[in-house]
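Question:
When you can, review this sequence-structure pair and walk me through the tokens.
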Amino acid sequence: MLRLFWLLLLAPVASAGPLTVGFADIDVTPAIEAKTPVFMAGFGANRKATKVHDPLMARAVVLSDGTQKIAMVCTDVIGLFNDFANDVRSDLTGFTYVLVSSTHNHEGPDTMGLWGSSPFNSGVNEEYMKHLRANIVKAINTADKKAKPATAKIAVVALPHLMEDNRQPYVKHEDLVAIRFESEGKPLGVLVQWNNHPETMASKNTEITSDFVGYTVGELAKRQRCPVAYFTGTVGGLMTTLKVPIKNPQGKLLEDGTWEKTEQLGREVAIEADKALKTAKPVTLTPFEIRRREIHIPVQNDLYKLVWRAGVLKRTFYVWDNNPTPFKPATSEDLSKPGALRTELGYLKLGDLEVAVIPGEIYPELVLNRVQDPADPAADFPDAPIEPAIYDQLRAPYKMLIGLGNDEIGYIIPKRQWDKKPPFCYGRTKEQYGEMNSIGPDAAPIICDQFQKLVKENKDK
């Protein structure tokens, strides 16, 4: 039976205890062995890793308000499916909510199956996935053991100059959110959330790396003198580091696909976050209100169906009956009929901070209420209603979105901007990138509508 996880855990403000926070990280780099190739994710098939340039990490944060306990972890991989997140949860006890996410790193191992030796061969190494799961659990438990009473300060800074949008209409989600936790005047850790693809090393690189994220974390940890956990947010559209003009200290313009640019960009993100934290404002992060909701989304992408039949995409498919929240969902093996996959949404209210947890790469337009209006007449669904924007549902002083949260379903595209059939929008002669890596045009309407209901239900209680 489909469970609607309306976890309304409202403790009265007076009963909430002090905020406690713990940080931990762990190395999750795959071993490079001649007999077992590591297929790298994010670009084309059959890109085999030749060496490790820098480690991949799982970074965990555990927070408690004295009544409820939350674990948040982000790994330097391309994406993790909902079943994997649920497996991690099954290995843990004592947590009200566990968030398993990824940076969407394009320079790490295939953890989804789509980048093997060919488009019809999975690149997933099951032994590595077991190793990754065990180490994520270990990082969370270690962070839990390290938790101490804490106060928090928050800063938000716009970084438009460190990102590009490579799809029309050009809309960026520019804000970086940084939260610094302290205990008795000493730093405990910093949580950073930003919206960009870790793909600076581009498609020809064959060395395992966390891309710019590792440099951001390393530089900021040095400046703040504490652990740093990085989380990815709104990266659809897509938000990218490619073609971002970055110069070295001597003023030389650095090229995509080089270590010099990757390192410099990562450090510039850290420098901006560090500057913002110097003027960070105290923020109250208790009490907690926590919910998640499982939903179904129709699979309208024929390529997804094809790789599922080939055994490359390992997910359970369900009968689609035009209901995102079926009471008794039935599994399906017949993709000639309408089918769906199960995913989930999350909503966290941590005092004066509200967090939206979205299971894929959502377009900034859907977060910031900037869907094109009127639509380009060449769009496939120019009369589709504009989806309720994610941030319009949040009313707390501070907002944050964590993408690829507890799942990776691909791009979440405004339906009236869907553009797969000719004629193409903006006078283009071919379609733009995005639709081929999306579950379908109805993903955005369902996700935004269900998230609105999730938050509204919370406010009505």
Helices lie at 82-90, 126-145, 212-224, 259-277, 302-309, 364-368, 443-460. Confidence is low (pLDDT under 50) at residues 1-14. The longest strand covers residues 339-350.
